[in-house]
Structure formats: structure tokens, C-alpha cells
Automatic annotation (TrEMBL), chains A, B:
Gene3D superfamilies: Aldehyde Dehydrogenase, Chain A, domain 1, Aldehyde Dehydrogenase, Chain A, domain 2. The gene is proA. SUPFAM superfamilies: ALDH-like. Keywords: Amino-acid biosynthesis, Cytoplasm, NADP, Oxidoreductase, Proline biosynthesis. It is found in: Cytoplasm. Catalyzes the NADPH-dependent reduction of L-glutamate 5-phosphate into L-glutamate 5-semialdehyde and phosphate. The product spontaneously undergoes cyclization to form 1-pyrroline-5-carboxylate. It catalyses: L-glutamate 5-semialdehyde + phosphate + NADP(+) = L-glutamyl 5-phosphate + NADPH + H(+). GO terms for cellular component: cytoplasm. This is Gamma-glutamyl phosphate reductase. Belongs to the gamma-glutamyl phosphate reductase family. GO terms for molecular function: glutamate-5-semialdehyde dehydrogenase activity; NADP binding. It comes from Lentilactobacillus curieae. Pathway: Amino-acid biosynthesis; L-proline biosynthesis; L-glutamate 5-semialdehyde from L-glutamate: step 2/2. It comes from the Bacteria.
Length: 414, 414
């Protein structure tokens, strides 16, 4: 099936104008109806999902698991929709306001971005989560999911659009591309006339392709080569617990730690314990010469290891001479996502937080907390690793913009 | 002269790390020394500028005027530097802070973007203004000015770099490309490894080329097809004064009005007066059939007129049936910069401010106020017409970003 991108874009822009001006109560009611509709259409969703699963026979088990929708998972999506209904609506907030020297009252009012495009990979829940967050924040959305989930995604989106329609809301506020070819994705990346921002969600291959090709402004999400630095004043138990948690609690996600740096003064004492705890949890360790002299089971690391995001039970270990060395190494190799120092030294903690150039800089906590839910935003549309517009977990506020609304009584410029 | 962009980028990134962590007092002192140094080197600057002027013999007078540096203009730049020294430093501000459910203290701290690249056209004062604003906000800058101003720009930048050097600050915090070829500009647009944001300043040709080609994130500035809408309840004198001010006070700039929409119910009464006042100020009027039936001196407008930014003493006039028609027309043809309604109708004023999708939406005031100085920001690096990151006049705050700084005592994720 081919899509007419210009038509889709123009329809999205038209719908965006309508939903930008819906009141919060209407939006919340529709979100709750989305939830009810998903539960009511469980069988239909499972049937569509089964078609995708049938086509996914040759794919790895991990991939198939992400694709699979069960009645329980559909209930989970519905619950997510109800949670978004309960979140505060950022639209219409006045962020700042002041009166200028001429007596103009100038207010900076929060408004939707307009049309958001999302390009994502296999997980069909993204189409529902993204629709909920963009709708609540008054934005229209154009979804482009992976071909592996096309039957699930189109069924889910059709259910949401039917609810919009019943409520007298332009159903083109939520659209999905039926054509999952690269050519069509590429067209979407150049739809500057209609699309205000493009958010890719997926592996680094997808994200890099979007950054390289898109002329529509992009918010980069998700690449995480996260570091734990164990300082010379670290508490050994805390260092072990945090390192294990950051590495193994969910190794496939972007806020999982990939690298362990340890201070040379305590490496002899602490590294064997930490390495043992990691290996007990099935982690393969790769390290520099110094770390391998301390723990013989560590395999040699190559130059590539320092910049690799494994998303797996692998961790590279390096012995560093000081907090300054740790900071230099991290600022050189990190993707700017999340880093943590384990220390009891006030000056080192302060220095690490000041000098590390990443979205989230922790003292004595697991990097796994970099997440919209954990931060208390209630939901997230992704984690930005760029510096423009949004940095770190992106909640509703991060998918809005502002405009200046100025009230005068005849002022002209002299 | 050729430039090694990778070397320039790496040097900028290194310098950025140093100046991100300078205290405000040091930065202010350096800015004041910049000012003194410019004044002291007036002769040297004028000599370099004369070389550029000699090469500009064949260029239009307006262009030559923008290029020209006199002792008075150099004093003006020095005064601008001192003003930037007096502005509040946004770096280190904590924008929000909260404690999450696990007891993590999470602060959103304002930090520099890192390395900012600017591509601009003839005016050499941009190299000094941009250096001042990026330095004050802790960012390194890579400047790429037009070839017409190369001698002026490099001389100005050399003076600033000498001051940095004397103060023990990495002079690569301010760099300028000596090669003004398109190839080198293109290389700069793809220097994602080192450049955090690219800000083009100039005509729409330059800005479109950057948006189309750059893989580095861009902040679009400056295109302004601004509208004045005279509502049926407008005060005629106010409507005339604001329209004339918005059109003629400085027609070459982006916040000057280019279009006049007038309500059909008052067009017979008001348009002759407003048109006469504009024509008395040398404005050429182009209009739709209805406006030409009312004022015979109005020339016919073509379809292109509605989307054209003249930057000149030309204005297109259209008679519309209602505030809703005015809003539809503006949202279709505007570049999203600045629009103003002249009205005494509360509901119309509120509707216009709510529904117009532009950076600055005025009631009863000239669009010429869309400006960092007029808003009270003290200075501006440009006016953003995009929705991502910054919208409207960009002061120091808009060329910074944030990072989350998180303080725990051993928290791990469950």
C-alpha cells in the first residue's frame, strides 16, 4: 500500500489546528475512551498481532517477545492511556510573563509543537504510547512503525481513530503510514512543510540514518554508553550494588551501564568483589591491562569497546588514576546519556557533576533511574541525548513549544 | 587559505570545556577588555575594513553601508560588549528541582550548549556580537562570515583572541574560518562530532541552504512575512499609526510588516486613510480586487505576493470577511514570525492570540517590537522562527541547555 505523504502531512496539519485548541477535559475523556476501546477490541488486536508473529518466525526470540501482544499487555497499554489522562496538561501554561519598557504585556505561553512524526521499530505499544502523549499535548502525530508490526500497529491506530471520530475530533490527529518502505520513511524526513519535529526511536542504526537524512528538525533519543566511576572513597557495598543494578537489572535498555571505571588506589581492594558480583550475574567482563592484572577472568578489551553500547550482559572495565581521568575518559567516549560516580568525597562529587557533559549526572545512584516514570513525569516519549530543545527524559512538556502573546494599547517603535 | 575543519572543531570543543566552567566575574572582565581592545585598535580595524570596501565597489550601496566600519560604529560595538558584560549570566541557574519517590534529589541545571557555529552574511559587527553572547553563555563559537567582510572579520576576531590569550583563556573559544568557500561552509554543516548547534543569519537563500544541507542541528532565524490585521472594531488612528510604523520604520528587517489585512465592514471607511499614510511614506501598495476597488492607486497583487517577504517599501493589502478569515490567511501564508491584530473587541483579540501559530502574536502594537532589546533581554543572537528549542527573540538563555544533576545515597532501581 502506498501513502501520499503530502496529503497525510496536510491532513495532519489541519487536525493539529483543531486539537491544539481542545480543552483538557475533552482530551482526558478521549484518552479514557481510547483505553476502553483497546480492552473491548482485545481479540481483534490479538488476531492482527498473530499475523505479525506468523511472519516473524525467522526472527530472534528477543525480537518476537517485543512484538507479541497478549490480553495482559493490551490491558497494560490501556492502563498507560488512563495514566496519561491523569497527567497535568502543559498547554496554556504561562512560563514567563513581564511588562517591557513601553508597557507591552509580554507572556510566554506553552503551545503544542504542531505535527510530530515518529519513526520506530518493532514494539507495537509505541504506537499507542506515542499517540497518547502527542494527543494529550495537543499535537497531531504521523507514525511510521517497522514492517514487522504493521498489522498490529494499523489495527491499534484504527481503534484510536474510531474513538476520535465518535467524539467529533478529526481522526487525522493520529495517522500511521501503511507503506513501511525506506523510500516513504525518507519522504517523511523531508516533509518540512507539514512536520514540525521528527523523533526516531530504536537502535543506533535507525537514529543515525534519521539524523543524517532528515531536513525536518530531529530530537535524537536513546543511545546510551553509560559509565559508573568507582572513586577512591567509595563504599564497596554501595559500589557493588549500584554497578550490578545498573548493568544487569535490564541490560537491553539505554540507561543500563556499559562501562566501569575504577580508581587505581582502590582497584586492588574493590575490583575483585565487584567483578565477582557481575560475573555471578552472568556478565562478561572486558578490560584494560591493569584491570586484567587484578582479575584474571577479565578478557582483553579492544579500542572499540570504550565507545560501544552493548545492550547486553557485557561490561568493559578500566582502571583510572583520578576523578579527573575518569571525567576526561567519560567526556571523550560517552554518548552523553547518564553517568554515575560512587564516592564519599564531597569535592569529587561536586566536580563530577559540574564537569561531566551528559544529560543525567549521578552521585551514588544507579544510571537506571534516567526514565520519565522514575523522574516522576508519569510517562516519557523518549530520552533525548542531544542538547537542543530537550535533554534527558522527555515528558509532555518536552513535546510542546511556546509562543509570545503580547498585549498593547497602540505602542509603536521609536 | 584553507581551514582544517576537524582541527578547528576539536580545538573548539577543548576550549568549550574550559569556558563552560569560568566564573561570571572572569567572563565579565574579559568582555570589558574586549571592548577596550576594539577601541584601542580602531585604526587597524578601519584599515582592514577599507580593504573589504575596496573590493565591494561593484556592490549595491545598501550592502556597502552594512559592511562599513567607522570609529563611531566601532565604539558602538564596544558599548555592546560592555552591555553583554552587564547581563545576568544564565549558567548554573537551577530551572527546576525536585525529589523523586526514591529520595533522589534531581536538579535541572543550566549549562552551555558547547560549540555553536554561526554562518552569516556581510555585516562584520555580527562576529563581535556573536562572540560576546556565546562567550558570556560559556559556549565556544566557530564563525563563518561572508567573503565580502573577511578582512574586517578576521581582524576583529584576532583582537578578541589576543585578549583571551592574555587572560590565560584558550583562544580557540572564538575561531573564524578564513576560507569562505561554499565547500568549507558545507563541511561545517556536517561537523556533528564537534558542533552542537548551527545558527545561520542572513537572507532566506542562506537560511534555506543551511536547513536543507546541515546534519548539525539548526536554529532557523529571521524569515519574516509579518501581518497586520485591522479588525472591524479598530481605532482608525491606532490602525494607521501601527501599520505605518510596522511597515516603514525600518523596512529591511524581519519584524517589519509585509501584509495588511482589513475587515470588509470597515475597509471602505478605513483603507483610504491607511493607504494614503503608507503612500505618503513612499510605500508601494499591491492588493486584491476588493482593495483596488476602494483605493485605485493600489497595484494588482499576484498569488506570489501573499508569501513574499519584501524587506522593502512594498506592502500587499487584502480585504477579509472576518477575524476567522484573517487567522486562516495568516496561518497559511505567514513564516510564523510576528502578527498583530488592531481591535477593540475582546473576543477577537483573545481568539487571534489563541489561534495564530506564530512566534509573537500582538494585539494593538507594532510587529517591530519582536527584538531581544525591545523585549528587555539586553541583546539577541537572532529571532527563531522554528518551534524547536527557542521561538522568538533569542537572548543568552536561548543559547544554553540544561543537564540533570542527581544526588543519591545508594539508590538502585527495583
Amino acid at each position: 500500500m502506498t501513502d501520499n505523504l503530502n496529503e497525510i502531512g496536510a491532513n495532519a496539519k489541519k487536525a493539529a489546528f483543531q486539537i491544539a485548541n481542545l480543552d483538557t477535559e475533552t482530551k482526558n475523556q478521549v484518552l479514557n475512551e481510547f483505553a476502553t476501546a483497546l480492552t473491548e477490541h482485545t481479540n481483534e488486536i490479538v488476531t492482527a498481532n498473530n499475523k505479525d508473529l506468523d511472519n516473524a518466525n525467522d526472527l530472534p526470540a528477543k525480537f518476537v517477545d517485543r512484538l507479541k501482544l497478549t490480553p495482559e499487555r493490551i490491558d497494560g497499554m490501556a492502563e498507560g492511556l488512563r495514566q496519561v489522562a491523569n497527567l497535568a496538561d502543559p498547554i496554556g501554561n504561562v512560563d514567563t510573563g513581564f511588562t517591557n519598557k513601553d508597557g507591552l504585556i509580554i507572556e510566554q505561553r506553552r503551545v503544542p509543537l504542531g505535527v510530530i512524526a515518529m519513526i520506530f521499530e518493532a514494539r507495537p505499544n509505541v504506537s499507542v504510547d506515542a499517540s497518547a502523549l502527542t494527543f494529550k499535548s495537543g499535537n497531531a502525530v504521523i507514525l511510521r512503525g517497522g514492517k514487522e508490526a504493521i498489522n498490529s500497529n494499523t489495527t491499534l491506530v484504527d481503534i484510536l481513530r474510531t474513538v476520535l471520530n465518535k467524539n467529533g475530533i478529526d481522526e487525522n490527529a493520529i495517522q500511521i503510514l501503511h507503506d513501511t518502505s525506506h523510500e516513504t520513511a525518507n519522504e517523511l524526513m523531508h516533509l518540512n512543510r507539514y512536520v514540525d519535529v521528527l523523533i526516531p526511536r530504536g537502535g543506533s542504526g535507525l537514529i543515525n540514518a534519521v539524523v543524517q537524512n532528515s531536513t525536518v528538525p530531529v530530537i535524537e533519543t536513546g543511545a546510551g554508553n553509560c559509565h559508573i566511576y568507582v572513586d577512591d572513597s567509595a563504599d564497596l557495598k554501595m559500589a557493588t550494588d549500584i554497578t550490578v543494578n545498573a548493568k544487569v537489572q535490564r541490560p537491553s535498555v539505554c540507561n543500563a551501564a556499559e562501562k566501569l571505571l575504577i580508581n587505581a588506589d582502590v582497584a586492588d581492594e574493590m575490583l575483585p568483589t565487584i567483578a565477582q558480583a557481575l560475573e555471578d550475574n552472568g556478565v562478561e567482563l572486558r578490560g584494560d591491562d591493569k584491570s586484567r592484572q587484578i582479575v584474571s577472568s577479565i578478557k582483553p578489551a579492544t579500542a572499540d569497546d570504550w565507545s560501544t553500547e552493548y545492550n547486553d550482559l557485557i561490561m568493559a572495565v578500566k582502571v583510572v588514576d583520578s576523578v579527573d581521568d575518569a571525567i576526561s575518559h567519560i567526556n571523550e567516549y560517552s554518548t552523553g546519556h547518564s553517568e554515575s560516580i560512587i564516592t564519599n568525597n564531597y569535592a569529587h562529587a561536586k566536580k563530577f557533576q559540574q564537569l561531566i557533559d551528559s544529560a543525567c549526572v549521578y552521585v551514588n545512584a544507579s544510571t537506571r533511574f534516567t526514565d520519565g516514570f522514575e523522574f516522576g513525569f508519569g510517562a516519557e516519549i523518549g530520552i533525548s541525548t542531544q542538547k537542543l530543545h530537550a535533554r534527558g527524559p522527555m515528558g509532555l512538556n518536552e513535546i510542546t513549544t511556546t509562543k509570545y502573546v503580547i498585549s498593547g494599547d497602540g505602542q509603536i517603535r521609536k
